[in-house]
Amino acid sequence: MIRLAKPQGYVILSPSRQQVANQAAAECLPLIFEPKSRFYTSPVLVLDFQSLYPSQIIAHNLCYSTCLGRISRSIEKRFGTTVLQVRREMLRQLEDHLFISPNAVMFTRKETRAGVLPRMLQEVLTTRVMVKNAMKQVGESDKTLYRMLDYRQLALKLLANVTYGYTSASFSGRMPCVDIADTIVQSGRETLERAIRIVEAEWNAEGTRWMILYD
């Protein structure tokens, strides 16, 4: 992230322990279903969201550099471990170019300012696809190379998935920001709930047991 942020003139924030302790508490909870353990005689449909949280960050351009804070009447607003001051005139100019998250946090769209986190994740996920394609080409001809590529794509997957944890790790993390972390969780939750409504409405799945998996 630092490698991508530096050429754009960004300075990485390093809050103190006291600043981290003083930031607001997280408000949003992920949507988690406990699977119903039983023997199923009918077909089971599994919908797998590929990289749910990274996909939310990329789709909505969620980043420290694109966040304009929570919607508030006050000009001076808390933003994670620090304070963010946004002029009302600028908000009026960006009115048609903002993404308002479900928990009332504002982000500029990609056309206005592309975020560092989305760009980083896009590069990571694109590289993972390239590695997996290379695995298909190698196949069984070279098991050592195949195993090395498999480890590499798994490392890239884990790197992408822990990006959310980087924004929410208030104890051991370097740059936690509860506003961004809550937005990622709540956006992912709304996506899952929307998928549930579509499945129930379009395929008459109400009353059946089905699951959505995401990693």
**Could you tell me how far the N terminus lies from the C terminus, measured between alpha carbons in angstroms?**
22 Å
What fraction, in percent, of the residue positions are helical?
Answer: 40-55%
CATH architecture group name: Alpha-Beta Complex
Shape estimate? globular
Q: Give the mean pLDDT.
A: 85
CATH T-level fold name: Palm domain of DNA polymerase
Return the CATH class: Alpha Beta
Classified in CATH, the superfamily is B family DNA polymerase, palm domain
Give the radius of gyration: 20 Å
Give the total of beta strands. Answer: 7
- Percent in strands: 5-15%
Uncertain runs with pLDDT below 50, 5 residues or more?
none
Count of folded domains: 1
Sequence of secondary-structure elements: HHEHEEEHEEHHHHE
Query: Number of helical segments?
Result: 8
* Structural class designation: alpha+beta
Main sheet: strand order: 2-6-5
What report would you give on this structure?
Helix 3 crosses helix 8 and helix 5 packs antiparallel against helix 6. The protein has helices at 2-5, 17-22, 52-60, 88-93, 116-138, 143-161, 163-168, 178-202, and strands spanning 46-49, 67-70, 76-79, 82-85, 98-100, 105-108, 211-214. It has a single domain (2-7, 48-208), classed as Palm domain of DNA polymerase (Alpha-Beta Complex), CATH 3.90.1600. The two termini are 22 Å apart. The longest helix is centred in the last third of the chain and has 25 residues, at 178-202. It is an alpha+beta fold and 215 residues long.
Give the structure's gist in a few sentences.
This protein is of the alpha+beta class. The chain has helices at 2-5, 17-22, 52-60, 88-93, 116-138, 143-161, 163-168, 178-202, and strands at 46-49, 67-70, 76-79, 82-85, 98-100, 105-108, 211-214. The strands form 3 sheets. It has a 3-stranded antiparallel β-sheet with strand order 2-6-5, covered by helices on one side.
